[in-house]
Design brief:
Length: 745
């Protein structure tokens, strides 16, 4: 006993000793990473900030168990090394969590370090504080942007803070990881892009994917690793014939062949539907030259000429961002050429200065600001200020408008008279109509671009000349929403639709009132319950769907008994729903299985909770899921890969709950598959249904198929027990002759 106590007394200080040394080591690493010039005051301030932070955080530990102080030191190092920020930012980064978490006050900081650093720390504290209140992340986003205008370093340090937190997210519980990842991909990745912090954007996206789709992430990472040698060999072969000519130019140069990010490769696999092995542009060859500013453009084009003398260029892939830099400051000359073995290779040609801007974005841009040319960020900040000041819509709309209108780059187009109009990149011909005038948008019937008729959803290209035809009888329809991207057009169409829906809804309301009179139930007493039953948020939505014929009032007696003047829901026993019901999208998620499978929500059995499986992503047992508390229809279970997940988690993080499957009974889940293939006669459908119902023994709930010119696309709704069974089914179907793809909806 005595020995044991002695032993403990000895090990405790030893551990403290070790941690102390570790902290000092990390601090020295930080000092070494600072590249900007510093005077004695700077050095003194950094030392003082370090000592205050060490003392203030001395009792705290991170989730991983390590001393908390390692976090601010690392954030400061990222600011210095990866963004290239100077002493002011480093001091602020070291202190970024003290006001929030410890008893050091803002006044203390102001007294010791002055106004500027206090302002930055204050901005950072306010941003962090947002996590502790039940406020939508959209509000948070608005705050992030306002601090951008106070001192852009607040946002840059916040980026470093977020990056370090993302890098060390491993020790957090899964539902928190998902929430943080969603917010990162929703706010921080696009903001990093807009500020020209390409490295940050890329790493954010990769780290988010690592959390939301861990298997896919590991798969791509492993394949990249496996093909590394082969890539190096190829890049050397590509460069060999041009190296001599490059040396003859007489400026030092270096080349890199870094692969593209895991996220962007995966995106390609997903959107182009090709396997990893068939993606040829896995990497871009970069040629970076060390030359004086005034020689940049001339020499870069000289290099272009050297490269394309040997490798055949693809003219439409030439991008000259040297003559016209991107609006986030990016400068570079890009081309794609046909390399050895007929493979497409992207070549990026730039100077060291351009490379630093590309890597470090705004901060580097700042450094070179004096050299000449107008500052692209000044214009952007003016726009941010405008939007922040003129915004009276709610926070979520604000974020969406902001994302489309200020994160994107611009497209330059002309009116028939030759006036220049600037719209966000990706804007359509219809956006242009609304940009000219709301009435022009409302009544737009046809659009000509460069004298040719185009669809309303045509994506504008730089230099397009756009001519709009209008008619008094034209009015917006629901489908227009899919053809616009700008906030203005979207909100104008939405309000026109609302008015239209209200008019239509009157018809539905009358029909429902007639039906209720017929069934002898009271309208006011039952209408809200009915809306909720069908999964609508309001009477107006219910009325509209009735008017559109999407809800068959004749079926009401199938779902309800009449007791007194009230409708009482029947308890459903059967799995299958009437076939006629499948076009009623809002009913699909409700009570379609018998006996709920075991699900835990926030760690508690969910059997008694009012939850439904979301229609949008149709989760089945075994899927990675989370619960979302809706405004009026209880809990909805979504897959973490659901297209709506990012939006929900980022904007309504406080409504997200952890959900996990425990075990299953033998309840079935509805899973929807999209199947495409070559239509080789009536045999395909027969083979499909035979395979599913006979070979795999599954029930088909509904099946629809459409095709033309030998190609078909089918949607099939199956009842499965769990994810494994579903995956086996997908694999089996993929192997059938004539089937080219099988994907979950
Ligand atoms: Mn922090």
């Amino acid at each position: 006993m005595q020995n044991q106590i002695n032993g403990m007394q000895k090990t405790m200080p030893r551990r403290e000793e070790e941690e102390k040394r570790l902290i000092q080591r990390e601090y020295r690493k930080l000092l070494k990473s600072i590249k900007s010039k510093m005077d004695t005051t700077d050095r003194h301030n950094i030392r003082m900030a370090y000592e205050i932070a060490v003392e203030a955080h001395s009792k705290q530990r991170r989730k991983s168990g390590e001393p908390y102080i390692l976090h601010p030191i690392e954030v400061a190092r990222i600011c210095a090394e990866e963004i290239g920020l100077g002493p002011t930012a480093i001091v602020a980064a070291l202190l970024h969590d003290v006001v929030e978490d410890t008893n050091v006050s803002l006044k203390d900081i102001k007294d010791r370090f002055g106004d500027r650093i206090a302002t930055i720390v204050d901005g950072l504290t306010k941003l962090d504080g947002m996590y502790n209140v039940a406020s939508p992340q959209a509000e948070n986003f608005k705050k992030v942007l306002s601090t951008l205008l106070v001192d852009v370093r607040v946002v840059l340090i916040k980026m470093a803070d977020r990056l370090h937190n993302m890098r060390t997210l491993g020790s957090m519980p899964r539902h928190k990881q998902l929430k943080i990842a969603a917010e990162t991909s929703f706010i921080y990745a696009p903001l990093a892009h807009r500020l020209g912090l390409y490295n940050f954007k890329t790493e954010f996206q990769d780290l988010c994917m690592k959390i939301t789709e861990p298997e896919k992430y590991q798969e791509v990472a492993r394949k990249l690793q496996e093909t590394k040698q082969e890539r190096t060999r190829y890049i050397n072969e590509f460069l060999k014939p041009i190296n001599d000519a490059l040396r003859d130019i007489g400026y030092p140069y270096r080349t890199t062949g870094r692969p593209k990010s895991i996220y962007s490769i995966w995106n390609k696999i997903k959107t182009k539907k090709v396997p990893f092995e068939e993606i040829y542009d896995l990497f871009a060859v970069r040629i970076i030259l060390d030359l004086p500013k005034q020689k940049e453009k001339q020499v870069c084009w000289q290099v272009y000429s050297i490269v394309t003398d040997v490798h055949t260029p693809i003219p439409e892939r030439l991008k000259d961002w040297i003559t016209t830099p991107k609006s986030n400051g990016y400068e570079s000359l890009h081309t794609t050429v046909i390399g050895p073995e007929g493979r497409y290779v992207e070549v990026q040609i730039r100077s060291e200065r351009m490379d630093e801007i590309a890597e470090k974005g705004f901060a580097a841009h700042w450094k070179y600001k004096g050299i000449g040319g107008q500052d692209v960020f000044d214009t952007w900040f003016d726009n941010v200020r405008d939007i922040l000041e003129n915004q009276d819509s709610d926070a979520i709309e604000f974020v969406n408008d902001f994302k489309t209108n200020l994160f994107n780059e611009e497209v330059y187009v002309y009116t028939p008279k030759g006036d220049l109009k600037i719209l966000p990149k990706g804007a359509t011909a219809l956006d242009f109509a609304f940009h000219i005038h709301t009435d022009v948008g409302y009544h737009c019937t046809a659009i000509k671009v460069n004298k040719k008729l185009v669809p309303l959803g045509y994506k504008l290209q730089n230099g397009d000349q756009v001519f709009i035809t209008t008619s008094k009888n034209q009015k917006p329809t629901e489908s227009w929403l899919k053809m616009v991207v700008t906030g203005k057009a979207r909100s104008k169409i939405r309000s026109a639709m609302k008015e239209e829906r209200r008019k239509q809804g009157e018809i539905g309301k009358e029909a429902l009132q007639r039906k209720f009179r017929n069934m002898k139930v009271d309208y006011e007493e039952n209408v809200d319950m009915l809306a909720k039953f069908f999964g609508f948020n309001s009477r107006a939505d219910l009325n509209f769907e009735i008017a559109m014929g999407n809800i068959n009032l004749a079926d009401l007696r199938d779902f309800f008994n009449v007791e007194g003047n009230k409708l009482v829901e029947k308890v459903s026993e059967t799995v299958a729903e009437p076939e006629s019901d499948k076009n009623t999208p809002t009913r699909a998620g409700r009570k379609k299985y018998t006996g709920k499978p075991r699900l835990l929500i926030n760690g508690e059995p969910a059997d008694d909770m009012d939850y439904v499986l979301a229609n949008c992503c149709g989760p089945v047992l075994g899927d990675d899921v989370f619960a979302y508390l809706t405004v009026s229809s209880g809990l909805k279970i979504h897959r973490t890969t659901c297209p709506n997940a990012t939006h929900l988690m980022a904007n309504y993080g406080y409504r997200i709950m952890k959900a996990e499957w425990v075990t299953s009974g033998d309840s079935s889940f509805v899973a929807d598959l999209i199947i495409t293939g070559i239509d080789s006669g009536p045999g395909v459908i027969e083979r499909l249904t035979h395979n599913i119902s006979t070979d795999l023994g599954l029930n088909i709930r509904s099946f629809s198929i459409a095709g033309n010119e030998g190609y078909f696309e089918g949607r099939i709704s199956l009842l499965v027990l769990n994810k494994d069974q579903l995956n086996v089914t997908i694999r089996e179907l993929q192997n059938l002759e004539g089937i080219s793809s099988v994907t979950r909806v």
